[in-house]
Amino acid sequence: MSMGAYDEDEHERREKQAAAVDTDFDDERTIYHGSVEYDSGESMEALLDQFEEMKSG
């Protein structure tokens, strides 16, 4: 089969692969404990200055 050739066997192989459902995975949800803090008090310029310091340091 040459590059790009697509025959009936290939079509059937891809159909079977697409129809298969992988149910072999852990279905439990992960529970996270902790807290998240948002600090939106700084101006855009202060944040950009902080970013530049982080990049150069």
Briefly characterize the structure:
With 57 residues, the protein is an all-alpha fold.
Provide a descriptive summary of the structure in words.
The protein has 57 residues and is an all-alpha fold. Helix content is 44%, strand content 0%. The protein has helices at residues 8-19, 44-56. The longest helix has 13 residues, at 44-56. It starts with 7 loop residues before the first helix and ends with a helix.
Strand content: under 5%
Give the distance, in angstroms, between the N- and C-terminal Cα atoms: 55 Å
Count of helical segments? 2
Percent range for helical residues?
A: 40-55%
C-alpha geometry: elongated
Mean pLDDT: 81
Q: Biggest sheet, open or closed, and with what strands and sense? A: none
Instruction: Please identify the structural class as seen in this structure.
Output: mainly alpha
> How many β-strand runs?
0
Ranges with pLDDT <50 over ≥5 residues?
A: none
Order of helices and strands, N to C? HH
Rg, rounded, reads 26 Å
